[in-house]
Design brief:
The structure holds 2 protein chains of 2 kinds. Chain A is of the alpha+beta class. Chain A has 13 helices and 5 strands. In chain A, strands 1-2-3-5-4 form a 5-stranded mixed β-sheet, covered by helices on one side. In chain A, helix 3 crosses helix 4 (56-67) and helix 7 (128-157) runs parallel beside helix 9 (195-257). By secondary structure, chain B is an alpha/beta fold. Chain B has 12 helices and 9 strands. The two termini of chain B are 34 Å apart. Classes of the chains: A alpha+beta, B alpha/beta. The interface between A and B is large, with 36 and 42 residues.
């Protein structure tokens, strides 16, 4: 259980990325929605409304499409976590198929083209003079810009991420298409002498070329940063792998050396299992920011000291305060008590709410009568019950007969009642 | 359990040895048929060795594709399913359940994993598993859980109950007023979940709340249904953030 993770991540704003899943066109609206924490539909409607206002939405959309890198916002947020605090096991994915947007777009274009051809045959005179060049221009720009999306894919295929033949072809093809489109568009009618027209043509060509080259330049800049980050990540991963290997191998060696002592072997194995499990399956909070994390630490200490495994469940989480520290110490004493005098299985249930923390420690031992415990025995009376009551909490020991003994501690958050 | 595994691994019969005629009926002379899906041979052998009479392993699989094939061919009563499996689209156990969704009435899925992570738990439960156990479970407990799942009940470990409380909230304001409310637990369901999280068995929960075991099972099944169907805001946002929906 990692109760801290959802709430913390839900509060933190996701970075702006264009997700591949759930995108309709470029993933801009889906990415914006994730970033702003709004519903995708709302963002799409807003974008469409903006597009109707003189095309502002279209400009914004294209600008974001160009400048925002593709990628999964959640993955990006997880990447930003320190690697040492992130779980190593891969997260499960559902195989939900994406809409084949590319195929749909191609199909739409073909259908529109066919419609236009049919219309032409029927005698409607379509003005193709500007249409073909404009389409060429669009295709060229699209081809050149498409490498922005392709960059990510290629980086998976080849770690160099540099100028592959395919991206070069994309660029050249894009530039050529744009040039042809611009020329056709500008020199449609015969009189080439017009100065104004040729000036416009030059300008248009320049803009076209700049449009085609800009993504290449952008990519170079971005790649540099990515490369650096990837190297740092690689180094961190290597550190973790080294740590894991050291600890596991160390434990195995210890187990072999002490193979005659089953209790020692069991204890070593359990400690190692707990550590490995933590590394593999849990995102770890920074020290001192999570009660749940602190509880797990206490459980680990007690398991190491005794020979009994403890089944710990923690619900909710928040930042520890002075009261929860006392609570943790009382919990530790209660667990030690259960290990020493109780019987397995030992269960720990901690419920963290904003206003209070509740702890239940349960074992299947015969239990004890609190009144029968001699007054001079500090164990239960002082270190568990006294500690909690002094802070304004309640502590009870319940003897449930054959189903064991349960210690129940409840303590309000600091700032409530502090004794 | 791993120690048992190495000792009995040698005489483990392969899936091909099974009399599939008997398996088609869902039972082998009245026993509960089980297909075991895990990518670790040692673990499968360990589970096989720890099962009691009345529970028969009729097939095994070690990846997503193999699991789907085995479930479709053998129609077991219960599928013991590891959450993390190689193959398929990377969805692990949840993917297997999704692919066998049309069989959910006949074959019931019980997830078994070393992972305690909440997002692993919720992915298989939302796909349709009837329970979630960690691999530290003992043989008798496992058999008990298999029988329970085969009988149509849900199996909640303390951890799963803890997750439910986490996802649905533990405050007094989080209590459902009507029974058909999917997004909140009723006060009774919350109580039952809290006791299970504290390590109570179903019988102990029943005696602590002065209700019958059957009623406890009804509450637990209702909670499972809510967990699978709820569109509760936090639950969905939380799961969506981890690509679970």
């Amino acid at each position: 259980m990692s109760p801290a993770a959802p709430s913390v991540e839900a509060v933190a704003r996701l970075p702006l990325r264009r997700p591949r899943r759930g995108r309709l066109l470029g993933g801009v609206c889906a990415g914006l929605a994730a970033h702003l924490g709004q519903s995708v539909a709302l963002v799409r409607v807003a974008m469409a409304a903006a597009a109707l206002m003189g095309g502002a939405g279209v400009v914004l959309y294209v600008w974001l499409w160009v400048t925002v890198p593709a990628g999964d916002p959640v993955d990006a947020a997880l990447e930003e976590r320190s690697v040492a605090m992130t779980r190593l096991a891969p997260r499960l994915r559902t195989g939900a198929a994406d809409l084949p947007i590319t195929e749909i777009a191609v199909g739409l274009v073909l259908v529109v083209g066919a419609g236009a051809l049919i219309a032409q045959r029927q005698g409607y005179n379509l003005d193709t003079n500007w249409l073909v060049p404009a389409l060429l221009l669009l295709a060229g720009v699209a081809l050149a810009w498409s490498q922005l999306d392709a960059v990510q894919r290629e980086q998976w295929l080849m770690r160099t991420g540099g100028r592959t033949p395919i991206s070069a072809l994309r660029l050249i093809g894009g530039v050529l298409l744009v040039l042809v489109g611009v020329l056709l568009l500008v020199w449609q009618e015969a009189p080439p002498a017009s100065l104004l027209r040729s000036a416009a043509a030059t300008l248009a060509v320049l803009i076209g070329v700049a449009l085609a080259l800009a993504p290449w330049w952008l990519r170079l800049v971005r790649e540099l940063g990515d490369e650096r980050a990837a190297r740092a990540r690689e180094a961190e991963r290597a550190d973790i792998a080294a740590h894991l290997h050291d600890s596991v191998l160390q434990t195995l060696a210890l187990i072999r050396a002490q193979s005659a002592d089953p209790e020692a072997v069991a204890r070593l194995a359990r400690a190692q299992e707990r550590e490995l499990r933590g590394w593999l399956y849990e995102d770890r909070a920074a020290p001192g920011t999570s009660i749940a994390q602190a509880v797990r630490g206490v459980v680990g200490d007690v398991e190491d000291a005794g020979a009994e495994p403890i089944d710990a469940v923690v619900v909710g989480d928040r930042i520890p305060d002075a009261n929860t520290d006392a609570m943790l110490q009382a919990t530790r004493e209660a667990l030690l008590n259960a290990v020493r005098y109780g019987a397995a299985p030992i269960s720990l249930y901690v419920e963290v709410r904003p206003e209070a923390v509740e702890v239940f420690v349960r074992d299947r031992g015969p239990g004890f009568d609190l009144d029968a415990v001699p007054a001079d025995r500090l164990g239960v009376r002082e270190s568990i019950i006294g500690r909690v009551r002094r802070r304004g909490g309640t502590a009870t020991v319940q003897n449930c007969g054959e189903s064991g003994t349960e210690v129940h501690l409840a303590l309000p958050a600091a700032g409530g009642e502090v004794g | 359990m791993q120690g048992d595994a190495s000792a009995t691994g040698a005489r483990r019969p392969g899936p091909g040895d099974v009399d599939s005629g008997a398996a088609d009926t869902g039972t082998v002379s009245g026993a509960i048929t089980v297909v075991l899906v895990d990518d670790h041979r040692m673990f499968r052998a360990g589970v096989r060795a720890s099962l009691e009479d009345g529970v028969v392993v009729v097939g095994e699989a070690e990846d997503v594709e193999g699991a789907i094939r085995a479930v479709r061919e053998l129609h077991p009563c219960v599928v013991l399913l590891d959450v993390h499996l190689p193959g398929g689209g990377g969805g692990g156990g949840a993917e297997v359940i999704t692919a066998c969704a049309d069989l959910l009435g006949g074959s019931r899925f019980l997830a078994l994993s070393v992972s305690d992570a909440a997002d692993d738990v919720v992915s298989v439960i939302r796909a349709g598993a009837r329970g979630y156990l960690t691999k530290a479970i003992t043989g008798p407990e496992l058999c008990d859980a298999i029988r329970r799942v085969a009988g149509g009940d849900a199996v909640f470990s303390p951890r799963l109950a803890g997750f439910v409380l986490d996802a649905f909230g533990t405050g007094a304001g989080d209590v459902a007023v009507t029974d058909d409310e999917l997004d909140r637990l009723s006060a009774r369901e919350q109580e039952v979940m809290r006791l299970i999280a504290r390590g109570f068995s179903y019988r102990e929960v029943a005696s602590a709340l002065f209700i019958s075991i059957k009623t406890v099972e009804t509450h637990v099944s209702a909670v499972l249904r809510k967990l699978q169907l709820s569109s509760r805001h936090e639950l969905t946002r939380w799961a969506a953030a981890r690509h679970l929906l």
